[in-house]
Amino acid sequence: MQVTLLLRLALFSGAAALLAVWPLLDVSAGGRAERPAPEAPPTWWQPDSNRVFAARADYTDSTGTVSVLHVGGDVQTRGHPFFSALGPNGRACVTCHQPADGMSVSVSTIKSRWRETRGSDPLFAAIDGSNCPSLPQEQAASHSLLLDRGLFRIARPWPPRTPEGAAVTPQFSIEVVHDPTGCNLDPRWGLHSAHPRVSVFRRPRPVGNLEYATRYGYIFEPKNGLPLPIDPRTGLRYSGNLLADQRARTLEEQALDALTSHLQAQASLSAPEMQKLVGFESQIYVAQSADRVGGSLSAAGAQGGPEALASGKPAELQGPGHPSWTEFDAWQHDAASTDPGQRAFRASVSRGIALFRNRTFLITDSAGLNSMNFGNPTRDSCAFCHNMARTGMDVAPGQVDLGTTNEPYADPAPELPLFKLTCASSYPPHPFLGRVIYTHDPGFALTTGRCVDIGKITIQDMRGLAARAPYFSNGSARTLRDIIEYYDRRYSIGLTEQEKQDLTNLLSVL
Amino acid sequence: MWILAGTFASSAWGATTEKVFVTCPVYRDTNAGRKSGCWLATDEAVGIRYDISLSRTKPQRGHEVLVEARLPSTSSASAASSAQSPCGGLTLEPVVVSVLDSLCPSFMLPAESYPGRRFRLDPRLVLGTADVPETLPPGPYPPRTWHIEFAYQSDFLQYQYSEVILDEIGRYVRASHPRRVEVTGYAVTQAREVSGHRLAEQASLAQARADMVALALERLGASEAIVKVSARENPEPLSADGELLEPSRRRVDIHLSY
C-alpha cells in the first residue's frame, strides 16, 4: 500500500511538472512533440530488493503514462525468480525488464544508470551489456551500442542450432565485412573462436502481454503452409511469436536461454521456480493508460490501458468484422471533451487508426509477406501484418523482413557489425535479395539456417511503446515518429505531414 | 521431350484445350483496396495479353512465370472479354502460375482506368480458429485419397489451399484411426519446352513434396509409425472436372487405408 501511495504521489508530481510545460506542447495538428522520459527515474528496480510489485502501477513516460497490470495481484519480490540475481553477474530478469519502461528498458534509463552507477550496474555486464566482453569495461565507449541504441549483444551459435540443440546445416556462409565492436572477429568470442558465435545486437522485448505472444489463433503457419509444431511437454503448439529470431519457443525456453546467457547462471531453475517465474510473466499486461494531451485513454468511451488487454481474447485476427484498434473507436465522435487540444488529439488518433486499417500501399520485396503466394508487390495496409487485435502482432508467426537489418533498406548503421551472407548454389536463393546478402543481423536465419529467412525479425507487441524507445530490433528508430518515417520511406507510402502525426499519435496511445 | 508453345489440345490426357507459356509478368496497380492489384501476362507467341490474377499463386515482379490455364472457348469471346476485363487482359480461369527462378525486367503499369478486382476470399478457404472445438467427420470411414498440387519446381504448401485439404485429412485421421497413411510425392521430370524454356522438375522434388506433406500430417496427429512416404516421377494427370491437367501431375497423393 505504501508503495502504491508513493507511486501515485510520484505520478501526481509528474503531472504537476507537465502542467508547467504545457504551453510548450504543439497541439495545433492534434499532436505534440515526443520527448525523452524523465531522466534518473526513481523507479529503478534493483535485483534482490525487498519490494512489492503492485497489482497495478503507473509510470510517467515520453508521452504520458504507461501502466503495468499484474492480474495475479501484488507480488512480494523477495526471493522471487524474476527479481532475484540468479547468476554471478548480479542481474535479475527485472534488470532489463523494468516496469517503468513498459517491462523493457529504454535508452534514457540505460543512460541514467550509467551516470548514476558510473557503469557499475549489472545492466552493463560485460557478457552482453558491452559491445564485447574483451573490451575495457570501465569505458563508456565499450558499451556504446547499449548506451546509444539500447542494444544488448546476442551471441548465436554458428553453425545454427535448433532450440533442442541439434546442429543445422546452414544454406549460407557468413563473413564479417566490418565490425566496430570487434566481437565477431574476437579470438575468444568471435566467429572463428573455439566456440564460434555470431554476435548481433538487439533490443530487449517487453515482458508483458505474453498471453498474446504465446497463444495462436490458427494452427497453420501461412508462411510455410505447415501446422505449427507441437510442444511435446504440453501438447500445445508453439506460437512462433516469442523473440526476434524465435530461438526460444516458450516462456520456459526463453527463461532458460536468458538464465544462461544474460544472467550467466550455471544452475537451472527448479520446477516450482520456473512455474512461479512463467506464471508471473504470463499475468503481466502493459499499455499506455494516459496521454499528456489526450488525457485518460479510457475516457470518453475509449478502452486504452492494460485492463482491456487482460480481459481481451489473445490471438484474435482483426478483420472487417472487428478491425484494428477498436479500443479507440469511441473517439471518432468525441463530444465529451471540452478541451480543444484534447479533442484535436483524440481526433488525430482516430485518423491514425483509419490510416492504419485502410491506407493501402504496395508492399514489396519483404520476405515472409511477398514470398508467400500473395505476390510481389501486394497492396495492403498496416493491418495486413499487424493483424492481431489489441497488440498489433501477427496472428500467424510474424517472421518478416521489413528491411530494418538487411541492405539495401536498412538505415545506415556504421556502428553495427555488417555481415556478408552467401547462399549456396544447391539451395534456393533469397527471393528478393539474391545469393549475396549484406545484413546487420541475419535474424530468423540464425535459427533456421535458411536463405529465405535472412533478416526476418518477429513482429512485436505494439502496446506500451512510448515507455521503451528506441524501436525495431536494432534500435534504429529513436522515436515513434521515426517508425512512421521508416515505413513511409521503405514502402513509398507518401504520407502527408498530418498523416505522419496521426499515426505517431496512434502509436503513442497504445 | 514435349514441345509446347502457345495453345495446345492436350490430347494425351483428353480433349481439354489448355494454354501454357512462359513470360515476364506485369503488375497493374489498380488501387482498388487490399490485394486488388492485377497481374498481366502476354503470350508473346500470339501477342495476346492475359489477366492471370485469379491464380492462387501470384507472380513475383522481376521473375518470369509459367502460366498454365484453360482458354476461353472462342477467340471472339476472348476479344470481348478482354475489352471488358477489370484488369486489361483476357481473363484466364482456371489458371495456375508458377514463379520461375529466371529473372526478367520488373514492370508495373498504372490503373489506366481499369478498376481491378476487389479482394474477396472464398469462405471455403478459411479455416476456423484454434479455440473452436473441432468437428470430426462421422463414420463409416472407407479408404480415401486426397491430392495436394504444387507450383512448378516448388514444394511450398500454398496458403488458402493446402491447409484446407490438410485440415480435412487431419480430422479424418483423428476420427478414423487408419492403419496406414500413404503419402506419395510426384515430380514431373519429363522435359517439355515452353516458350523456348526447357522445363523439367528435379527428381528430388517428389520426395521433398512428400516429406512436407508427411510432416504436416504428423503435426496434425498422424503417428509417424503409420505414415509411409514414397516418391515417384511423371504420374498421369488427375481428371476431375474443372482441373487443369498438367498442373495436377505436380502433386502429392494421400491415401488412408484400414
From the structure above, extract its key features.
heterodimer; A: 510 residues; four-stranded antiparallel beta sheet; three-stranded antiparallel beta sheet; 17 strands; globular; disordered N terminus; B: 258 residues; 3 helices; 16% helix
Quick synopsis:
The complex is a heterodimer of chains A (510) and B (258). With 510 residues, chain A is an alpha+beta fold.
Map the helices and strands.
The complex is a heterodimer of chains A (510) and B (258).
Chain A: H1 2-21, E1 52-53, E2 56-60, E3 64-70, E4 75-76, H2 93-96, H3 107-117, H4 126-129, H5 144-149, E5 152-157, E6 172-178, E7 197-202, H6 210-214, E8 220-221, E9 226-227, H7 251-260, H8 271-282, E10 284-291, E11 295-296, H9 306-311, H10 340-358, E12 361-363, H11 370-374, E13 378-380, H12 382-385, E14 399-400, E15 418-423, E16 436-439, H13 445-448, E17 457-458, H14 480-490, H15 497-508
Antiparallel strand pairs in A: 1-4, 2-3, 3-10, 5-7, 6-15, 8-9, 10-11, 12-13, 14-17, 15-16
Helix pairs in contact in A: 10-15, 14-15
Chain B: E1 2-4, E2 6-9, E3 17-23, E4 26-29, E5 38-43, E6 48-51, E7 63-70, H1 75-83, E8 90-91, E9 95-103, E10 107-110, E11 144-149, H2 162-176, E12 180-187, E13 192-194, E14 197-199, H3 204-219, E15 227-233, E16 251-257
Parallel strand pairs in B: 1-13, 4-10, 6-8, 12-15
Antiparallel strand pairs in B: 2-3, 3-7, 4-5, 5-6, 7-9, 11-16, 12-16, 13-14
